[in-house]
């Protein structure tokens, strides 16, 4: 038996010579497939399910997922109600991420409605940022998270429509792209500004953008819209290419966001 509900996420994990396709359907079923044999899955599990709750931890249906960089076991899942979960394909294995296990039956709470996209950090620099990830939502925001905290490090709210997709640059550690229902394609640089995008473009079409993906060189963006068009944008080299100190600068920015977030979440007693 494979999926019985719509598949909303597909990802290929593994090395160049040994990889599997992972599919996730709206009922929380995750299947692992060998690309040499697509007749039946190699593995079928329920995500975010624990022995105490045999029907699963989800309030409603999962909508998107992403695996952590270089990790075939740990992943993040967004849901229809706005909650985000981390889980493991093989939960009997305790796989630490940045010194801690990331299995998290309690949700990351922040979005007020459906999570439309999840992007874990690819960690292309010498400094590891594998503990952070982005989420986009129909609540008109993009949020930055760390697996160490259950509240967002920062909320990017310079949007007037649903945000349908988000993706980190595979080259520049501080760069990510997001697309929304007005047809905008935004590129954010966390080092330059966390309030407004560093670059923004609109196509000749007025259709909503619902998917975005960087190419492997970090120099081009592909965005898909709800009318079936695919738009390819070149990213200028000064923006696309990181400087020698950019990873350290990003670490400083994240530390500042962490301090601000912690202060905001503290309860003050009289």
TrEMBL record:
GO CC annotations? Answer: cytoplasm; cytoplasmic dynein complex
Keyword set for this entry? Cytoplasm, Repeat, WD repeat
**What does the record list as GO biological process?**
transport along microtubule
**GO molecular-function terms, A-Z:** dynein heavy chain binding; dynein light chain binding
What InterPro entries would the database entry show? Dynein_IC, WD40/YVTN_repeat-like_dom_sf, WD40_repeat_dom_sf, WD40_rpt
Q: Where in the cell is it found?
A: Cytoplasm
Tell me where it mainly resides: cytoplasm
Keyword Repeat in record:
yes
WD repeat boundaries on the chain = 108-155
What SUPFAM superfamilies does the record tag this protein with?
A: WD40 repeat-like
Q: Which PANTHER family match?
A: CYTOPLASMIC DYNEIN 1 INTERMEDIATE CHAIN-RELATED (PTHR12442:SF22), DYNEIN INTERMEDIATE CHAIN (PTHR12442)
Protein name listed in UniProt:
WD_REPEATS_REGION domain-containing protein
Which organism does this record belong to?
Mesocestoides corti (Flatworm)
């Amino acid at each position: 038996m494979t999926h019985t509900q719509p598949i909303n996420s597909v990802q290929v994990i593994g090395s160049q010579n040994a990889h599997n396709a992972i599919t996730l359907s709206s009922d929380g079923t995750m299947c692992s497939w060998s690309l040499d044999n697509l007749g039946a899955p190699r593995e079928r599990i329920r995500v975010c399910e624990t022995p105490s709750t045999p029907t699963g931890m989800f309030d409603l249906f999962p909508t998107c997922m992403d695996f952590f960089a270089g990790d075939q076991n740990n992943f993040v899942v967004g849901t229809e109600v706005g909650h985000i979960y981390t889980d493991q394909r093989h939960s009997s294995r305790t796989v630490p991420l940045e010194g801690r296990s990331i299995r998290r039956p309690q949700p990351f709470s922040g979005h007020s409605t459906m999570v439309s996209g999840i992007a874990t950090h690819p960690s292309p620099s010498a400094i590891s940022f594998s503990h952070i990830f982005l989420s986009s939502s129909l609540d008109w925001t993009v949020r930055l998270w760390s697996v160490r905290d259950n509240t967002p490090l920062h909320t990017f709210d310079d949007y007037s429509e649903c945000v349908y997709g988000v993706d980190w640059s595979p080259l520049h550690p501080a760069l990510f792209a997001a697309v929304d229902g007005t047809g905008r394609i935004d590129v954010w640089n966390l080092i330059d500004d966390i309030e407004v995008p560093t670059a923004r473009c609109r196509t000749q079409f007025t259709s909503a953008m619902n998917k975005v993906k960087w190419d492997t060189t970090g120099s081009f963006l592909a965005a898909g819209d709800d009318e079936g068009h695919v738009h390819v944008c070149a990213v200028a080299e000064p923006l696309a290419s990181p400087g020698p100190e950019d990873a350290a600068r990003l670490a400083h920015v994240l530390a500042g966001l962490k301090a601000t977030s912690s202060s905001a979440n503290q309860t003050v007693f009289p």
